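Quarterly update, task 2.4: zinc ion-bound model.
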Amino acid sequence: MKPDFSGFLREHAAADLAESWQGAGINHIEVDNHNAAWYLHIELKKPLPAAVISQTQEKLLDVFPFLSTLEIIPALEDWEQGITSLLHIYAHENNNISKQEWNRLNWVIDGPRLDFLFEADRDFEVFINNQECSLISDWFRREYNLRILTRALCTQPNFESCLENRHEIKALNVLALRETSKKKNQGKRAYQKSVPSADSVLIPISELQEGMKNIVVEGEIWHKESHLLKGGRYVISYFITDFRDSIMVKTFADNLEQDDIKPGQWLRISGSVRYDENSREIVLFMDAYSLADKPVRNDDAAEKRVELHAHTKMSAMDGLTEVKDLIIRAAEWHHSAIAITDHGCIQAFPEAFSTAKKVQKEMGRPIKVIYGVEGYLVENDRKESPYHIILLAQNDQGLRNLYELVSYLIWITFSGIPKFLALN
Ligand SMILES: [Zn+2]
């Protein structure tokens, strides 16, 4: 049984709002402490207008003033019924599709996925060219805050232009198309290394939709794979991320030497988005790419802060960062000091010390390491549920105390969990 969201609202916000959320349950809450953001994933009995959702968000932001973002992400208990009823409203409100056309449409709903199925090649093309998928998906987002992945699929296997959806020899078909279009460019390469054309639009990966043409994305390649096709050519798949979302990018090559894209590179890629039957998801088919500079994150604050609570990879489940990366980044941002506070351990200290020395010498940036530990504080008994506590050493004596405390605690608790008794 899911926690009752309308009850939560009645208790924390306003009763009149609670009314609209009758029957809604809390699926889960995503907490982003760093950005003071909460994302509430709420399951609804039936879709709610975006206005009600944003009103509720504002109300809750008043109630939790320590948050800078609070977003409600609705889901439906019964997607099929919910989406179907909304589609009828959509057809009624938007006349970009005629009544007859609408009545001919077939669709299947699987969770938040909506697939329009086309038997006729021409209808499919018209639907894609009118960007119907994006329009419908945007409408769901705008009117009901629902994120629906909307796609158009051609089910008729005999039409030439339903390229990606031709069953087994699908990839070869795309290959043929690529070749003819490349012949015009007289290059032998299956894809060009060039600056994507100026009329393309740069789009965040999270906003890619099936049917988009001539768009550009930017991101880091984190993995690639290649497969030999029956015709002797290769299909190469790159996995690209802009650190908010990711997508698979595909291209074709005569041999693997043609492919000089490497994981770790930051690329700008132009192409078209289509559903790919092999990968069973939307894929960006690459037309061209160019190397680009990875955007660097800066700390633009006029008055720099000092981080007093930072975990390195020495904190199991709480940190992945190398201590040297942490210190170099703080120095790059002109921070004067940084605290290292792993969970009940001091293993990162020697490297922190040597990195700070090196940074001063090589970058000319003095940075002070504040040595600390994060522990758990209990009043009387180690079985109590503890509070978090950050201990920072002020001087040599403090550092010595920290070492002793940590050794003592590890010895008496026989675990990595440093529970401090408030009394000692
Ligand atoms: Zn912590």
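Highlight for this quarter: Confidence is low (pLDDT under 50) at residues 158-195.
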